[in-house]
Amino acid sequence: MRSYGHMAKAAGIALALAALTAGCTSVRDHRGYLIDQTLLDSVQPGIDNRLSVEKTLGRPTFVSQFGEKDYYYISQTVKTPPFRRPQTSEQTVLRVRFDPAGNVVGVDKRGMEQVARINPNGDTTPTLGRHRGLLEDLFGNIGQVGASGMGSPGGPTGPGPNGS
Length: 164
What we know:
Oligomer: single chain
Organism: Novosphingobium lindaniclasticum LE124
Protein name: Membrane protein SmpA
Keywords: Membrane, Signal
GO cellular component, one term: outer membrane
């Protein structure tokens, strides 16, 4: 009877450990356009136009704002480790270029090599100009407000806002 209790306790511990480790796995999530290579291969430069590309690939993720109105299709796979921020593990940017008449000129496909990793510089944003302290911020304008043009109404600065 004693060994049965020991086995039940060991099974309970094993079950608890399995439950804990299952909660510590990364979550994978797909965001954006789902790229179908067969559909992508069917878009041909010189044959297709904007309308046929939209019918084949669907509406683009976004359209360029400058120059020719190129179509962009963005696809991302994001991993979220436990207790941490999501990180992009895979990314594909599909660009369909058009000529001024709206016909396909080319199809470009880029991956993670185009992703820029930016690390912020702490909690402050560096700026140009003077570095003022707290007291200068609080009392810096004393004597500055209304100092020029103080005199009689209608003096060198002209009439006030009420016409006097």
